[in-house]
Amino acid sequence: MIKRCYGGCMSKPDFNLLVTLDVLLAEGSVARAAKRLRLSPSAMSRALARLRDATGDPLLVRAGRGLVPTPRAIELRERVGQLVQDGREVLRPAENLDLKRLVRAFTLRTGEGFVENFGPDLLARVGDAAPGVLLRFVQRPDRDSTPLRDGTVDLETGVVVKTTGLELRMQALFQDRFVGVVRKGHPLSKGEMTRSRYTAGRHIGISRDGLDKGPIDIAVEPLGIKRNIATIVSSFSTALALARASDLIASVPEHHTGILRNGMQSFPLPVSIPEIRVSMLWHPRLDADLAHRWLRGCVRESCAGR
To answer: pTM for the full model?
Structure first.
């Protein structure tokens, strides 16, 4: 019987294995990790065996046709990635960022309305300073932090919630408040906006998941207020399009929908609704990256101007 040794079999740690471990945990596959590191599958299997010996844990175990990480592997994944990034920063020569010669593409995942309202200023700032930089904007369909972790997204904007990855770096950009919006000539566009007038109207509920209650309904419920929801849509732009063509009332974040509300009548809500804080988020491995640091500054300046 062959007894596999986990732990205590290596007198000195081989720090070269950190890169291998980082790739293995990211790929979850010996074959894919081997291809990424340009090694043979057998060489990668030997490296995995050495890692198991070094950590005292199997790390990746068979589940059907694939491999799944052990709890220890999940615990190590973010730490190892940061260690590898820190090592690369230490061993890389110091450099000054030459924006005019910088050629790079950044992917920004943003919430609805961000590009329409902040994109023009941000693109102008980036284009003037670094014409070789491409900004790629993608929608933020959910709050899953995986794209930031795996590097498919460089920067994200949105509201930080409890499920946001704790390892992510974040910085507040601005506070936003909800406002009511109706078409020009709507009966509510004239006279004092009272709580009774607001709640008596027919409202558009906004829920990405199609839920019956949104943040406004949850906030006013303790006050004994219930809005008359005529329909539920999944986006601010859809709600505003409906309000523009009907007598329905949309309640949306003010700064995020500035351009989208052009030609409509907006008013402060006559009920107390907590403001939301919009932040930018990024993975710690990009903290010291000079180009990314410059981009974060551009985003801050663009948002501060609104």
So the answer is: 0.66
SS3 per-residue string spanning the chain: CCCCCCCCCCCCCCCCHHHHHHHHHHHCCHHHHHHHHCCCHHHHHHHHHHHHHHHCCCCEEEECCEEEECHHHHHHHHHHHHHHHHHHHHHCCCCCCCHHHCCEEEEEEECCCHHHHHHHHHHHHHHHHCCCEEEEEEECCCCCCHHHHHCCCCEEEEECCCCCCCCCEEEEEEEECEEEEECCCCHHHCCCCCHHHHHHCEEEEECCCCCCCCHHHHHHHHHCCCCEEEEEECCHHHHHHHHHCCCCEEEEECHHHCHHHCCCEEEECCCCCCCEEEEEEECHHHCCCHHHHHHHHHHHHHHHCC
For 99-176+277-304, CATH number?
3.40.190.10
**What does CATH list as the number for 17-91?**
1.10.10.10
Pick the CATH number of 178-274 from 3.40.50.300, 3.40.190.10, 3.40.50.10490, 3.40.50.920: 3.40.190.10
Looking at per-residue confidence, does 209 or 159 come out higher?
Answer: 159
pLDDT digits (tens, 9 = 90+) for 280-294: 999 988 988 999 999
Check whether 232 has a pLDDT greater than 90. Answer: yes
**pLDDT tens sequence across 15-51:** 888 888 888 888 888 888 888 888 998 998 999 999 8
pLDDT 10s digits, 198-208? 988 999 999 87
